[in-house]
Amino acid sequence: MESNAVLLESKSSPINLLNEMHQLRLLGHLCDVTVSVEYQGVRAEFVAHKAVLAATSKFFKEVFLNEKGMDGPRTNVFLNEVQVADFASFLEFVYTAKVEVEEDRVQRMLEIAEKLKCLDLSETCFQLKKQMLESVLLELQNFSESQNSEEESATQPSILLESKAAAVAEADQADCPLDPPDSPVDRPSNGVSPEMPATKSKEK
């Protein structure tokens, strides 16, 4: 009787593998490539593992697959127009899948990712730039809204004053009617003035 197949899968194995390779690189163990980086007179050398670089960068994969022969125990690769700090950050990313950089270096990391054809780093930089842009736009929107609310609150008192003035004017009109009772309109139409005593009119 055949038994059913089961899947043995480790969630931690990829992380452990990366961590172990990173430690081997930092200690210089089993490294088989030296990358020389030079930019504006600043030069540095980095040791690494061909397999890791080839797996994460199409640029290095092409270099290693096309090399004719080994010039010694280690392959040497020379990179110019790449800043030392940027390549150090690139190496840390490909060995750990994360790296901390200043905001103004994100664009440079995107450029080195494109130069070395590292898709994972390129996508990570692109997503981070998108988030940064969205946060800037959100800040601008919040600032604009706060400015508008300040302008509205500044115009509100004058509106209140105008409405109060109108209310006061209405109240005055109610207290002082336009046609008081002793006005000529309300006088009798017989031509006799109400102030004249009735006795005088009889005498006439």
Automatic annotation (TrEMBL):
Residues 146-204 are annotated as: Disordered. CDD domains: BTB_POZ_ZBTB23_GZF1. GO terms for molecular function: DNA-binding transcription factor activity, RNA polymerase II-specific; RNA polymerase II cis-regulatory region sequence-specific DNA binding. Pfam families: BTB (PF00651). Residues 31-103 form the BTB domain. PROSITE patterns: BTB. This is GZF1 protein. It comes from Nyctiprogne leucopyga. The lineage of its organism: Eukaryota, Metazoa, Chordata, Craniata, Vertebrata. The gene is Gzf1_0.
